[in-house]
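#lab-general

N.A. 3:47 PM
ok so I finally got the sequence cleaned up, no stray characters, all 747 residues accounted for. can someone with queue access submit it? mine expired

B.Y. 3:52 PM
send it over

N.A. 3:53 PM
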Amino acid sequence: MNTLTRQEMQGLTFEPQQPEIEQLDLVRYWRAIARNKWRILALVALVGLIATLYAYSLKPIYRSTTTVLVEGSRPKGAGASMDDLYVAYTGTTRDFYLTQFEIIKSREFAERLVRVMGLTKHPEFDGRRASKPWYAALLPASGSAGGSSAKASDEDIFDGVVGAVMARTSLQPVRNTQLVKVSFDSGDPELAARVPNTLATIYIVADMEARLESTRRTTEFLARQSEGLKEKLVQSEAALQQYREREKIVEVKGVSLAGASRQLEELSSSLVDARRKRADLEAAYEQVNAARQQGKAADSLESLPYLLRHPLVQRAKEAESEAERRLSDASKRYGPDHPRMVAAQAELKTARENLTRQVNTVAQGVAKDYELARANEAAIERALGRSKGEIQSHNRKEFELQSLERDVAANRQLYDTFMQRSKESRAGDMQTAIARIVDDARPPKGPFGPNKQLIVGLSVLAALLAGVSLALLIERLNNRVKASHEVESKLGVRALGVLPVTMVEADRPLELMFSESNQNAFSESIRTIRSSVLLSGLQSPKKVVLLTSSVPEEGKTTLATNLAFAFSQVKKTLLIEADMRRPKIGRILGQDRHRPGLAELVAQGLPLGECVYQVPDSPLYVLQAGRVPPNPLELISSPGMELAMERLKEEFEVIVMDSPPVQLVSDAVMLSQLATSVLFVVRADKTPYPIARHALSRLHRVDAPVLGVVLNQIDLEKADNYYGEYSGYGNRYYRKYGYYGKDKVTA
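B.Y. 4:20 PM
back already:
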């Protein structure tokens, strides 16, 4: 019996693999290519052979080139401005050359070339005269460029030849020059030289014809327009003269308007003075009337400012002041009765009476002056209004006169311009060519193509890329679990161990491999899985290990049987055949399949001794399925199942249960509630990971204690070559047993 120390068990445990980093994907793709290398090489060889046969069956192609100089700036003489009439819009110099290059490649020139050279009857374009290659019989029938079909119309043949000529013609501008190289590819060297020369000649001749036609149309247009413009000029001059005569306009251009403006300024100034004088008289008149209406004496009128400023009143005031001075002097020398005193008093009285008369006279004259000032103001206003009306009328006439003069000037200028352009169009040198041939095309001495080596090389490269891409696509679409690192990356569960493909004899079932020969790679893998299970729960003395899978034929029964034999070497172990739908453990062990087993133990409560038996020459105990009930799920989910498990736990340290697949029935889901560990078996390179992941999700939903996944039937040599996961010491270690990737095995 093999026993392992605690340190050895810890060394055999599997730790969860870290997620793959990006560099490992490159290795994975490289190994995918390596797996399909012979298919890729076969595809490359086949395509290379076909490409070689095709390339060396092609006819040689000759290319000849003519060099054309495109004149960007034409010689300009007397008719220099006619360039603007011929070229409506040239844009920049670069745009001009690009336009000319497109004109050379146009379909119109290609059609002229085909007609001039009669290419529709040339053997290279007439499919009815051309020889066919060896592979023509392998291709489907179709019309050629020259119209190989006898029923093709002349128009179809012509269109086909034009298209072929345009496809074979190429233009290459010479950088930083006005030169352009016109090339043509043909199987006939002579034709390859004639076509570009003829095309260049057609371009030059067509340009000259277009320019001559444009000059003719321009001259006719200018002649028609000149006649109409001359008639308009005569009519506008006659209308101007008639207007002058009707309005009697002699002075023009502002001469007569200057006198009217000066008169308007003088009247405006006089009106301001008249209004100021009228305002003063109006104020004095109102003061005098107010004083008279209040019944004041004449001496009170003397205090009015306007009357005091009047000259008559001022002289009367001066005379009164002089008389008062003399009376004052006389009163100092003479007595009141003295004649001089009496004369002075009489003089003062006379002066005062004169002042009163003058004040009254001036006061009476204020009304007359006021009326006169009003009349004068009104007269000036009327004169000012008449002056403004005359100026406005003059302005209107001058505006209309200027409009007529502008019409005459515009018509005269337009007429003169058209006459000048008409003379230029007649005198201009329109025979200057837009381009000239610098270097004629000559028949080439050697073929230009096809490049046979390049065709074969590109075909091989394309086949290689296609093969690699197809291999990578297949690898990308392959959703099967192939290695332990994919178990953890795709299923999210750690890989507990792997079981290699093992060669066995036909009469030796693989389920008994561990018990019969435990010195091989398969048995070592079983021990590794056993160690992982033992170390997973050291605190639990009783272990119930459930084995299941997603679909049938994944090797769960094989693993359950061999794992039970391995556990029996270190623990008292019981193997339960819980797969009541397809029981086969009894048949493998050579026992009666109708022997009482799990069904009788749960349903009838039979003693353990009647249901459990020990395998001959082995410490392993087995509990077969017994008689299969009509509905195994009801039996498994019954309370009797839990009681039976409790009885079994009391007798055995380790219980290994083989259960049905998760995807088909729910037996394994129910049994997982009775287990302390669940091992999920996945068949390498066979089980799609979406199915396995779905089955694991069902177990996770019921909180099943899934310990890990066992990858079964993995070809270690293939995995080492293609996945690089089992290289190094592991391979050398397994090879010494002689069971390293020989044959397939059935579960």
